[in-house]
Amino acid sequence: MSKTGRPTKYKPEYCEKLIEFFDVEPYADKELEHLDKDGNVRWIDYKRMANKLPTLRSFAKSIGVNIDTVYEWIKQHEEFSDAFTHAKDLQKWFLIENGLNGCYNPMFAIFTAKNITDMRDKSEVDNNTNLTVTGLEKLTDDQLDGLVAKLKNSIGETFNRESQTNSTESA
Question: CB under 8 Å to 84, separation ≥6 — which residues?
Answer without folding.
Answer: 18, 56, 74
